[in-house]
Design brief:
By secondary structure, the protein is mostly beta strands. It contains 4 helices and 41 strands. The strands form 7 sheets. It has a 22-stranded antiparallel beta barrel. Strands 5-8-13-14-11-12 form a 6-stranded mixed sheet, with no helix packed on it. A hairpin with a 2-residue loop joins β2 and β3. The protein is globular and about 75 Å long. The relative contact order is 0.13.
């Protein structure tokens, strides 16, 4: 709704519309305001522009989630709601409501999103891309303005990750006033209490924003309480119209109790029960950065970023299968000692990027190029003998660590991508990325000869890619892409787990490619994006059994084979208006996937088993989400139905779970969510969320390592209410 104020006489006309004013001569006469009304359907899913900043996205599959238009349980961070309109997103619910988002696409591993190049405002947040690429940093959704996702064919510009790039863009400062305030407060089931508060504004050439979030809950399961806090400060200095500096610091820290894994019988009996009361997990991460954006000319712009990921990942756990009870020993009248593990991250990244546009064959072409330097130092201390207590305590009762390791990496990447505009409708972009570096492992373990532990992994990869886009018209296009990707051998792959295990000193980084072909656009009331894709993933890591020269059985950690994933992704949305008051939007977001092992053998007991043709674990054949959004005046109602088919938990495709529940089928599950929002005034909004309406008991994965082998139940029915105030 806009107001146009017309002011006129015979010799003067002043028109004020949309913030622009034009005046002529001297005398005025004020007319009545004219109100223009129109319907607007909130668009919470968009695509990236072909060129944005110093990045080229033409021909790539991209999605942008506008969080300001989403009607979701924001505080709880339910991935199925946030990423509802992105087909193929597999959500791994693992360690508590709202603590972490664990997702994957196209058959990759969802653990901490470590197959993605994860960023916050373009700043890398993966803890250590070469040692442990999980993203332990955790931004609250209340602080997020939009989420950008570029699939695997974005691997040349960001980094060689198979999953592509996932970028959380935080809310920008309010430049219309010196100070503005926003407060988002939530109360919900199982003791959920959350408050998010922010200040932002503009003073002279300086824009700023500062926010903080505190959250606590007792948890859906027994012994699953958590405490979360996060903060962020951003200062922008607009030196000139074309030169901007940004100083940013953000931090997240949470402590959660881990209720322990269940076996299948315990899950059927009561999915809310706990098998552990003394297990804790605590990632505490700081991400500082400095960035310069310089528009050198109308055709050239440059960005320079220096950032770091600094912090720890701590845990203290009685780390045994669900079949082993954590009970007091009658002889000592104490619990058993817990295991203490501490990771320290010191990861530094500097990246220089340039985008230049130029004329070639009378058409405007663009090249994006840059260099990225990483210097990471990760220290991992594990298998410390902790206390027999029940609180969060990282104290060791003996000074030695079972493992005390340093993993240092230096890596340089040089990359370039050129957009060739061949006609008004057709363009091709070609690119390359060269990764050169090495990782050095040093340290000690209690069970392995110190002289045999040091290892060096060299990273030397030329990566190539090509994308194409054909614009049928301004709203509809075809796109296709092929891009190579790799995943470094990480620390957990290198370190022997016992005295009976030997690590291959010639381990190869995983290497392969992504390919996709898509058709997207919008026409009248329809919006769509349909994609066929193929992911080739070579040199997977695993173990094989072998016999040494003395006839002794050893376990050899090495590359065990390849896999591929092929599939279809479909997004379809229909928008309707009924008069000026009723808006209706219907959508479906569906993916079909088939992920299989190729030429692969894995150790089983004392022999090697060929698993070629078996399905890759945690890859459901079908993930579909169907939703409806209805807006009537100032009320918005959203309904979401999610369905995920069964999947396997191991490469052997075990169907009948063992006593521990660590392997076996992950059953299919279906979920229903309801969200209702009320716009009380322009400054005050209310929202009510009913999640998992049908109270489905389900789990998404049977992990083999952290947080423990077995079943980790996801949340049942939960309710929350949120009030948002912005002044």
């Amino acid at each position: 709704m806009k107001q146009l104020l017309l002011i006129s006489t015979a010799t003067l006309i002043t028109v004020t519309a949309f913030g622009q004013t034009t005046t002529d001569t001297t005398k005025t006469h004020e007319l009545s305001p004219v109100t223009v009304q129109g319907s607007h359907i909130p668009q919470d899913i968009q695509r990236l522009e072909p060129i944005q900043g110093t990045y080229i996205y033409s021909g790539k599959k991209s999605e942008v989630i506008d969080m300001t238009q989403k009607n979701v349980a924001m505080t709880e961070k339910y991935g199925r709601q946030i990423f509802a309109k992105i087909p193929g997103v597999f959500v791994y619910d693992m360690d508590g409501t709202g603590n972490q988002v664990n997702i994957s696409t196209r058959g990759l591993d969802p653990h901490r999103g470590w197959e993605f190049n994860i960023r916050k405002d373009g700043i890398l947040t993966n803890s250590d891309m070469y040692g442990y690429p999980a993203s332990h940093y955790n931004i609250p959704m209340e602080a997020v303005e939009r989420i950008e996702l570029v699939r695997g064919t974005g691997s040349l510009q960001y980094g060689g990750q198979f999953g592509g790039m996932l970028n959380y863009i935080s809310k920008q400062p309010d430049s219309t006033q010196k100070i503005s305030f926003e407060s988002i407060n939530t109360i919900g089931s199982y003791g959920l209490l959350s408050t998010y508060n922010s200040l932002s504004g503009k003073v002279g050439k300086i824009r700023y924003s500062a926010w903080m979030n505190k959250k606590a809950l007792t948890g859906y399961r027994a012994n699953s309480e958590s405490q979360f806090n996060a903060e962020g400060i951003s200062i922008y200095y607009d030196a000139t119209k074309n030169l901007q500096f940004k100083f940013d610091w953000t931090h997240s820290n949470y402590l959660t109790s881990l209720a322990g894994a269940l076996d299948d019988s315990l899950f059927r009996l009561n999915p809310r029960m706990a098998t552990r009361s003394r297990n804790y997990y605590n990632p505490n991460i700081h991400v500082p950065s400095i960035k310069m954006d310089w528009k050198i000319s109308a055709s050239t712009q440059l960005s320079l970023t220096t950032s770091a990921v600094l912090g720890t990942r701590n845990s203290v756990m009685f780390d045994k299968p669900a079949t082993v009870n954590d009970t007091i020993n009658p002889a000592t009248l104490q619990y058993s000692n817990r295991q203490v593990d501490i990771d320290n991250y010191n990861s530094y990244t500097t990246e220089l990027r340039v985008l230049h546009s130029y004329k070639f064959l009378k058409r405007k072409n663009s090249i994006s190029a840059g260099i990225q330097y990483m210097n990471n130092d990760m220290r991992r201390r594990q298998q410390g003998v902790g206390t027999t207590g029940s609180d969060f305590d990282l104290t060791l009762v003996t000074p030695a660590w079972g493992r005390d390791l340093n993993f240092r990496t230096n890596n340089i990447a040089i990359f370039a991508e050129n957009l060739w505009v061949l006609s008004d409708k057709f363009s091709i972009n070609t690119g390359a990325r060269i990764e050169i570096g090495k990782s050095d492992l040093t340290g000690t373990t209690a069970y392995y000869l110190d002289s045999e532990l040091p290892n060096q992994i060299k990273h030397s990869f030329p990566l190539f890619g090509v994308n194409a886009q054909y614009n049928i018209n301004q709203r509809i296009n075809l796109y296709a892409g092929w891009s190579q990707a790799y995943r470094p051998v990480i620390l957990k792959d290198i370190v022997p787990q016992s005295v009976f295990e030997i690590t291959d000193n010639n381990l190869k980084d995983a290497f392969g490619y992504n390919a996709e072909l898509g058709f997207r656009g919008n026409w009248k009331f329809l919006k769509w994006d349909a994609t066929a894709f193929y992911v080739q993933y070579n040199n997977r890591l695993g173990t094989v059994a072998q016999t040494d020269t003395a006839g002794n059985l050893t376990i050899f950690r090495t590359n065990i084979g390849n896999s591929n994933t092929k599939g279809l992704e479909l997004f379809l949305q229909s928008d309707f208006t009924f008069g000026n008051k009723v808006l209706l939007s219907l959508f479906t977001s569906t993916s079909l996937m088939d992920a299989r092992y190729q030429d692969a053998s894995i150790r089983s007991v004392n022999e090697n088993v060929n698993v070629s043709g078996n399905k890759v674990e945690s890859v459901p054949a079908l993930i579909t989400r169907i939703g409806a959004n209805l807006q009537y005046k100032k009320i918005r109602i959203s309904i979401l139905y999610s369905y995920t088919t069964e999947s396997f938990a191991d490469a052997f495709n075990t169907t009948i779970p063992p006593a521990s529940g660590a392997t076996g089928l992950v059953p299919s599950y279906q979920l229903l969510d309801l969200n209702v929002a009320f716009k009380i005034t322009n400054e005050v909004n209310l929202q009510f969320n009913l999640n998992n309406v049908l109270n489905e008991s389900y789990f998404t994965k049977r992990p083999q390592f952290y947080p423990g082998p077995g079943i980790w139940p996801s949340d049942g029915r939960t309710f929350s209410a949120t009030v948002l105030v912005k002044i």
